[in-house]
Amino acid sequence: MTFSEAVTSVTRSYIVPKCYDTISKGSPVLMKLLQNAKPWKTGVSYDVIIKYQDSTNGGNTGVADKLDTDRQNVRTTMSFKPKMAYKPIVIANIEQTLNEGDERVIDLLEAEFDSQAQSLMQVMASNLWTGTGAGNSWDSIYNAADDATNFATYGTLARATYTTLNGYYLASAGALTLAKMATAYDAVSIGNDSPDIIATTKSIWSTYESLLTTTVRAGYTQNGYPRMNAFGMVSGSQALAGTQGFDVLFFRGTPVVKDEQVPSGKMFFINTNYFGFKGINISGLKQVNFKKSNDGVPEGVPGRVPSTRGFNFRDMMSPVDQLAEVGHIIYAGNFISENPRLQGQMVGVT
């Protein structure tokens, strides 16, 4: 309805004192990896020692036989470089001044920090799923879960020479079937180690759900209704009790997670025991955190929950030629797989 100036001239509009994020996408896998980051304390590279072949010396022996003492080299080193991603925080002095006092609805600096931090998390999600490792580009699950089809080297080592660095890669997978998923799962399972996350897009997740509708209904009725927690992972609490549609699906006991940042047509089989984020807390910078409760951000979206290691902040500083203050938030580290043969991906899934 339209109010007269008699009312509007003496009455202010009500502004909700909260900023709602309507742009960021969810990435539960990124949230899990950042929450469980390992430290990269010092060193110009992150080196991983690998055994790439069995020795051929030794073996069975008889009575007083001469023993083979030939010494063979079966180890080498993968090497990864640190990477950084950043977002600037720029606040004009006059804007900061006018934002103070009774007329302030939301603190300008806090709002700008949160906004840029959420944007930085979207950059990190892109790094996780599409990074190539070349130049300033981060390493990622994309180049870890490859068989030299797209990346001839990994960790500076040639996959043609060190064939055990090949992950599972299925190009032009086509229509999703349980048999294709089983083949991929088997290919990246060694001994008792197998994927603990299967990540894919919403549409492919729904396709998988349609393959299992009757099976899932019967199985969940017997075993309860697990749901996603704040990090987008499976918890043991009760959830959905309806007769159609589900919060969580499993394949061989591994949760199948819908991640909005996964590129179209892809399904990743990830073993987080051998793939994760190695974070660098930069000396001289502050290590900061997201708000413990940021309810303006949808659940399951990075930026809603704490993520500290590798998340750095350079204090606000005034440039000599600008009436403003400028700071930077920086993520430092890399996404590294110590054993890429335990990672896999299917491409072109429909």
Taken together, the total number of domains comes to: 1
As an assembly, this protein is single chain
Ends apart, CA distance between termini:
49 Å
SSE succession: HHEEEEHHHEEEHEHEEEEEEEE
Please give the share of residues in helix: 10-25%
Radius of gyration: 25 Å
Task: Please give the structural blueprint.
Layout lengths: L4 H4 L19 H8 L2 E2 L6 E6 L23 E6 L2 E10 H6 L9 H23 L10 H4 L8 E2 L2 E2 L9 E3 L7 H10 L9 E4 L1 H22 L25 E3 L2 E5 L8 E4 L4 E5 L6 E2 L23 E7 L6 E14 L6 E3 L4
Parallel strand pairs: 1-12, 7-16, 8-10
Antiparallel strand pairs: 2-3, 4-15, 5-6, 8-11, 9-10, 11-16, 12-15, 13-14, 14-15
Please tell me about this protein's structure.
The protein has one domain (28-45, 80-346). It has seven helices and 16 strands. The chain has helices at 5-8, 28-35, 93-98, 108-130, 141-144, 178-187, 202-223, and strands at 38-39, 46-51, 75-80, 83-92, 153-154, 157-158, 168-170, 197-200, 249-251, 254-258, 267-270, 275-279, 286-287, 311-317, 324-337, 344-346. The strands form four sheets. Strands 1, 4, 12, 13, 14 and 15 form a six-stranded mixed β-sheet that branches. Strand 5 and strand 6 (157-158) form a beta hairpin.
